[in-house]
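Reproducibility note. Readers wishing to regenerate the assembly model reported in the main text can use the exact inputs given here. Chain order matters: entities are listed in the order in which they were concatenated for prediction.
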Amino acid sequence: MGLRLEGKVVLVTGAGARRGIGRAIALGMAREGARIAAADIDPGLVEETAAAILAGGGQAVAIRADVALAADVRGMVEGTVAAFGRLDVLVNNAGIAPIKPFLDLEEATWDRTFDVNAKGVYLCSQAAARQMIRQGTGGRIINVSSISEIVSGRGLTHYSATKGAVRNLTRGMASELGKHGIAVNAIGPGTIETDILNYLPQADQDRLRGQNLHQTPLGRLGRPEDIVGAAIFLASDEAAYVSGITLFVDGGQLCGAG
Ligand SMILES: NC(=O)c1ccc[n+]([C@@H]2O[C@H](COP(=O)([O-])OP(=O)(O)OC[C@H]3O[C@@H](n4cnc5c(N)ncnc54)[C@H](O)[C@@H]3O)[C@@H](O)[C@H]2O)c1
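Running the prediction on these inputs yields the following C-alpha cells for the assembly.
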C-alpha cells in the first residue's frame, strides 16, 4: 500500500509544543507523505517541528501565527500556498485551557479562550476553505475538539463552552462547504498527556495521572500519538464520504468508569 497522504498539503495549527497533539499529527502525517505547513504562536517551537520533519526526510515549512488574529491567519494560508502551491487539509489544533472556577472567571479569560479555541477555528477554516474553493479540488478540515464538547469538568466551564462551539462549527461548516467538496470533521480527545495539563493545579495533575487507571476504561491516559491515526484517517481517501462527525478518541472515557 502507498503512503496514505502522498502529495497532500496539510496546514496544522498549534503544531509547536514538544509533547503536543499538533506536533504529533504533523509528524505522523509527514510520515504518510504529506507536505506540512506547521503553524504556531511560538516561532521557536514550530521551527523545531519543521526541523524534525525535514530530518525525517519529509517536507515542511514553519509559520508563526496567532489563530485569533485575522491578519496572521491570512498570512498563514498565504505562506502555505507560497511554500507548496496549494492547501488540501487544515487541522485546527491550536487551543488553550486556562482553569478557572466559574464563580471566579474573569471576562479576559473567557474572551481569550473563545478567541483562540472558537474564533480561531472560524478564521482559519474560512481562510482555508476560500483557498480550497479557488483550487476547485475540495479539501478537508479537521477540528481538534475534545470530549469537553459534551461534558465539562471542574474549572472548565468556559473551555467546554468553546468546544461546544467547535462541535457546532464542525456541523455548520460541513453543511455549507459540502457542495465545494470540502468535508469537515472533528476529533474529540479524552485526557491526553500534554503540557496543556500544566494549566491544572498540581494536586489535580497528580490525581489524574495517579487515578486515571480507574477513570478510563482502557486503563491509562491518552498520548499525543493516540490521536494521529484518527487525523490521518479523516484526511485520507478512506474518509471521502465522512463529514460532520466528531470522532472521539478517549479510551472510553465518555462511557464512564467500568
Ligand atoms: N491534552 C488534552 O488532554 C486535550 C484533550 C482534549 C482536547 N485537547 C485539544 O487538543 C488541542 C491541542 O492541545 P495540546 O494538549 O496538544 O496542548 P499544548 O498546550 O501542548 O499545545 C497547544 C499548542 O497551541 C499553541 N497555541 C496556543 N495558542 C495559540 C494561538 N493563539 N495561535 C496559534 N497557536 C497557539 C501553543 O503554542 C502550543 O504549541 C487543543 O485544541 C486542546 O483543546 C487536548
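We highlight two features of this model. The beta strands are 9-12, 35-40, 59-64, 89-92, 139-144, 182-189, 246-249. The domain at 9-250 is CATH 3.40.50.720 (Rossmann fold).
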